Amino acid sequence: MSKPPFLALPSGVRAYRMATARGEFAVHDTADADHSGRTVLLLPGFTGSKEDFIGLLEPLARAGFRAVAVDGRGQYETGGPREAAAYTQSELARDVLAVVAVLGRGEPGAVHLLGHSLGGLLARAAVLRDAAPFASLTLLSSGPAAVAAGQQERVRMLLGALGTMSMAAIWEVMQELDQSVGSAGEAPYSRREAAETSAVLAEFLRRRWLANVPAQLAATGEQLLTEPDRVGELAALGLPFHVVSGAADDAWPVPLLDGMAERLGARRSVIAGTGHSPNAERPAETARALADFWLSPSPR
């Protein structure tokens, strides 16, 4: 899971529940910044949340974007039903389009969409369902099909545990196995501040995990195991595409992401010194790469 570099909302960022035709979604929104009509929607990955993008919000706002990070249905502060049928990829794609309808006010090409990891698969499904509202699609550490074999084993272990253990018990096992991987981020802390921040972050990660709806984790985990390759369908849409990753990735190997970018005719950005979550590990560099793509007159 991604580990946010910090938790305090940057100046100008508002946390609230956005009302849509498909219910309310918890968001972080830089709407008060001068964004000249440029809007970006950020979708988190498996076991993640809007906080995974917290380090991107201020630099994207400074670059002239309204950046909105969202908890999807069944994630952290959005919540959702306990039935697995609510979390099919089709249902979650409709949720994305409902949020975009609010942000873009029904105008074509109004929103740049970014999905991290699982969020990239959901972003792709939304665009394939209706590409009209989107100005571009960025796939951040998200590949062409199911996750790599090593990650499939971890996902299957989690799915098995969800059927037999409580969320609290699973969390304790995850800690023992050091499954909560990520980066401390870029914030310049003293030793004492770092210790205090680490404790606060650890409590946040636990609280976030417990708030996830188990049915959502089960359904989306299954999607990570079974997702087909839909790159050809996506390429046929002709949207501007951007494939971003760290220099290493244990969910989708970097050479696989390179190949996907070629098939899409996409811009390719690699954030040096990062793994599966460049957005959390080096947000400033990641934000620069994203803004450069979105501001380019020829974004490919």
- Count the domains: 1
Distance between the termini: 30 Å
Strand count, sense and closure of the main sheet?
8 strands, mixed
Within CATH, the superfamily carries the name Alpha/Beta hydrolase fold, catalytic domain
| Strand percent estimate | 15-25%
**Unreliably modeled segments:** 179-193
How many separate helices? 11
Shape: globular
Helices and strands, in order, run as: EEEHEHEHEHHHHHEHEHH
For the biggest β-sheet, the strand order reads: 1-2-4-3-5-6-7-8
- Overall structural class, as computed from helix and strand content, comes to alpha/beta
The percent of residues in helical segments reads 40-55%
- Radius of gyration over all CA atoms, rounded: 18 Å
Second CATH tier, the architecture: 3-Layer(aba) Sandwich
CATH topology name, in short, is Rossmann fold
Structure summary, number of beta strands:
8
Q: Any overview of this molecule?
A:
This protein is an alpha/beta fold and 300 residues long. It has one domain (14-295): Rossmann fold (3-Layer(aba) Sandwich). The chain contains 11 helices and 8 strands. The chain has helices at 54-62, 89-104, 118-129, 149-162, 167-176, 191-211, 214-226, 231-235, 254-264, 278-281, 283-295, and strands spanning 14-20, 23-29, 39-43, 66-70, 111-116, 134-140, 241-246, 267-271. The protein has an 8-stranded mixed β-sheet with strand order 1-2-4-3-5-6-7-8, with helices on both faces. Helix 3 (118-129) links the parallel strand 5 and strand 6. Helix 2 (89-104) crosses helix 3 (118-129) and helix 4 (149-162) runs antiparallel to helix 7 (214-226). The protein is globular. One of its GO terms (molecular function) is catalytic activity. Pfam families: Abhydrolase_6. Residues 40-289 form the AB hydrolase-1 domain. One of its GO terms (cellular component) is membrane.
